[in-house]
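Notes from hallway chat w/ T.B., transcribed later so I don't forget. T.B. wanted the structure written out for a chain they're using in a teaching module, and asked if we could keep both sequence and structure tokens in one place. Agreed to drop them here.
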Amino acid sequence: MTGPTIDRRWCLDTLQGLVRINSINPKLRPGAPGEREIADYTAERLASAGLDVEFHEPEPGRISVTGRPRGTGGGKSLRLNGHYDTVEVDAMAEPFSAAVRDGRLFGRGSYDMKGSVAACMAAAKALKDAGLQLRGDLVVAAVADEEYGSCGTADLARRIKVDGAIVTEPTALQICLAHKGYLWVAVETRGRAAHGSKVEQGIDANMRMGRFLARLDGLERELRARPRHPLVGPPSLHAATLAGGSGLSTYADHCRLEIERRTIPGETEASAMAELERLLAAIRAEDPTFDASMECFFAREPFEVAPSAGIVTTLATAATTVLGSRPALVGDTPWMDSALLAAAGVETVVFGPTGAGAHAAEEWVDVESVYRCGDVLAATAAAYCG
């Protein structure tokens, strides 16, 4: 199984254009530009490649773009998914240079994940240039907001129904079958404010949080000792932020702890929360005056796809042909948009180029791997969509 070869010059020009645009997520940096400018640029490039283009705005100013060569009917539909929002550029020497040195293209988002977006766009253009008429629709989705809340992918998962999807997060040209999910959980303990000398009046919310933290430490060690998922390892948690008290001579009337709990495939938000609730219940059983509450204020599910799934086998066959060897089947620990697509009933896998420096002071993507990724995506689409 082979597909058409991408236009490498067009792909590189597109990637450099993407990286030169500031698309920092405004949820991470208030006042940042977000996706409006990069959406316009992406739409222009997709249109120049002969694709039907649409804009999608799930929240004001947060714009995703889709482009598609529509199928003739009767085949399976495939979505190539990548985000073009980025994190901040603090401490970066060349955040928007898109300079190429020794085969590496530098700049914020080059690796995470504008290189992938360019590969998706180049793959669709290659199919158009070759005059291939696919039976199923191919949808290139350049999405907003993955770096914060993923409103772009969540919106398109409701709006555009497809049979299969490749989320093109960078995987070093390996096939990723699983990743972790996470919960953000807030625990609050309540005490009674009083002057530090009035021991009979004050109740120390910070000390009470300490009781919970001691039990949380035990749960953290237990999680690490549990059977590891073969692709993503064990579940975990950490105490991320802690705040309580108003002054040295005042009993703290309130303390707030924020926890991140990383989940593995097979775990759910409900099961993870139940474990944490049991810690509070044990303290209340010892001390009925213990006053605390807990809430999960954000959660994302873990992801896993079977190696036998159609999108996985089609991708593996195409990648083996293009790359000359069969890519490894791996897992990864960060959360990705793939979980949202899988939850929407879409057969999903993760595959993307090579690089380094996501969220770091120096970020780069290997240009040759972007080209090879594009060729693999084009061959996969030709086979999967028919």
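Follow-up for T.B.: The mean pLDDT is 97. Might be a good example for the class.
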